[in-house]
Amino acid sequence: MRSAIYLLLLLLTISCNTNRFYKYSDDLFDASKTKYKIGDDRTWLQKDFDDSNWKYEWDKPIGKSIFYARKTFNIKQTADSLEPLGIIVQSFGAYEAYWDGVLIGINGSPGKEVKGEKKSNSRKAFLIPKELTNQGKHVLVLRSSQFFQNVDQRITYAYIGEYYTIVRKELITTLFINILAGAFLIAAIYYFFLFISDRKNKAMLIFGLTSFFFFLLIIAEYIKFYVPIHYTDFYLRLKIIGFLTFLVAFLIPYYFALQFELKNKNYFTIAYFILLLITVWYNFNRYDTSALRLGQLMWFSSFAIILYALYQKKKGAFTILIGLILSFIVYQLSIYDISLFVSFAIILLCMFYILSVRTKAQRLAYENSLLQSSRLKIELLKKNIQPHFLMNTLTSLIDWVEEAPDKGVLFIEALAEEFDLLNQVEDQTLIPISQEIKLCKSHINIMKFRKEIDYKWIDEGVSDVEFQKIPPAVIHTLLENGITHCLPTKDNKMIFKLSISNVDSNLCYTFETFASIRNPKKKSKDGTGFKYIKARLTESYGENWKFTSEQTIYGWKNTITILT
Q: Sheet of 85-90: strands edge to edge?
């Protein structure tokens, strides 16, 4: 986090204006200050040519004709630096650039553009001769043609400054911005892999997608500084930027709504998505305005969610609020191209922070569940080998050996089988349901000899899911509870039935005991057995399970549902 803050401060520093002496008379975003004329008259290149009757836009379709664009600059004072001045021009078409009537550069082949050849660049830097940079009025003239997309007139932007400074400044800014982009690309890849290993964690997926789209957004915005872009591809790039901005602006508030458990978040998501669509439609083809409005909607929506989270006293909400306020301050203090992405970056860091807080909480909960599961596992084993259990079992064994040695041998084998099975599964997180059933049947065989009750086992739907896994000794615990808390019927029988089925794509285990309740008026509460079951389910399935236990007219019914 500290490194990220240092990087943001550095970006703010390099965004400051270092060209103190040179200012063109036009407002950078005011198209009315650039004058146009269709035709090809070389006298129009002269510095002192009277262009008072020129229009601020084309007065007719240009087709394949040559047209001129004139822009006036005012240098406030002569430079005292040895570094020459330069000018960066952003314009559609192929053109020759003239400064005070002197050719300073060529971009493509004006008037000779050929279909299939795209040589011009929508953004170009030119060096201005030292002798033409004195204080006063200067004129930039572009002798242009726009063979492709000649029904779209794009405003001619241009600004001047110390040549190596303005060129180097853009590259340095791009360098640090791309380092920022790389950091979010790494974050996206990392959380994509985490999501693959834990597909139920939607927050990781959303953060990974947001980081990836933000990476693509930075690349799409700053690629113009180091990759030539023909004017026919200019709007395509702006559309890509608009689409990526839309995705990021949608995902960030949705992420906060998800993490802070916003009430009616589904309704909020739909309404917010529709609002974004309306904003894009209203600002159609106004790409910068559309991106600005989407960013503002994203910020205000996120701010409202965080205020709700603060009201609900959600952990981490105050830190996120500070981050949002900081992003607003950065947006107000820095230039648009820098502030927009730095503000987005701060908000994404806030998303990363709340994700790390939630991940830490989940990890601690998981570790606690493991500790609890281990403790309850030991308790369960103690329950099965405690002196009382062993004493009663051994006493019964002595009686059977004396009265019916052949059945006594079966008793010993059943006892050995159960302890062997318990020893096999005690250290496993999940075992096949077939092995769990085998453990239950082994326990029934023991209890038949001990209690001399006719215990019967029935199962349904097992053949379809025999390899389906379940936490060990969960059904066995329900069986043991049934034997302990129920009495046999008048014909000295107790029936246990396990049914496995799919209910709404969820796997459902229903364990029923057909017998008389020993104490029907006694309220059911979580004993060691139920605590063990819930701890085991949490260990294996997180919160994606349900467990119910209830009395019925025929005995007792337990239901375990594994949610998908």
A: 123-127, 85-90, 157-162
Pull the structure tokens for residue 269: 């998501």
CA angle 459, 464, 469 (to 5 degrees): 85
d(CA 9, CA 524): 61
Q: Which residues pair with 311 in a beta bridge?
A: none
CA distance 490 to 487: 9
Amino acid occupying residue 259: Q
- SS3 sequence, 399-458? HHHHHCHHHHHHHHHHHHHHHHHHHHHCCCCCEEHHHHHHHHHHHHHHHHHHHCCEEEEE
Average pLDDT, integer, range 88-108: 90
* Cβ atoms 470, 430 nearer than 8 A: yes
Model pLDDT for residues 335-390, shown as the tens digit of each residue: 666 666 677 777 777 777 777 776 776 677 666 666 666 665 655 555 554 555 55
| Alpha-carbon gap, residue 349 to 5, rounded angstroms | 10
Least confident of 115-124, 225-234, 282-291, 332-341: 332-341
Q: Are 231 and 148 in contact (CB under 8 A)?
A: yes
Q: Partners of 552 in the beta sheet?
A: 555
Q: Are 340 and 332 in contact (CB under 8 A)?
A: no
According to DSSP, residue 146 is labeled -
Q: Is the pLDDT of residue 206 over 80?
A: yes
User: Which candidate, 66, 18, 27, places its Cα nearest to that of 156?
Assistant: 27
Number of Cβ within a 10 Å radius of residue 139: 18
Instruction: Return the SS3 of 202.
Output: helix
What's the distance, CA 398 to chain centroid? Answer: 65
Q: Give the distance from CA 186 to its chain's centroid.
A: 13
How many Cα atoms within 13 Å fall on the side-chain side of residue 218?
A: 25
Helix (H, G, I), strand (E, B) or coil at 392: helix
Q: How far apart are CA 204 and CA 259, in angstroms?
A: 10
Query: What are the backbone dihedrals phi and psi of residue 95, each rounded to the nearest 5 degrees, phi first?
Result: -155, 160
Question: Does this model's pTM top 0.70?
Answer: no
**Rounded to whole angstroms, how far apart are CA atoms 363 and 386?**
34
102: helix, coil or strand?
Answer: strand
Residues 6 or more apart in contact with residue 524 via CB below 8 angstroms: 549, 551
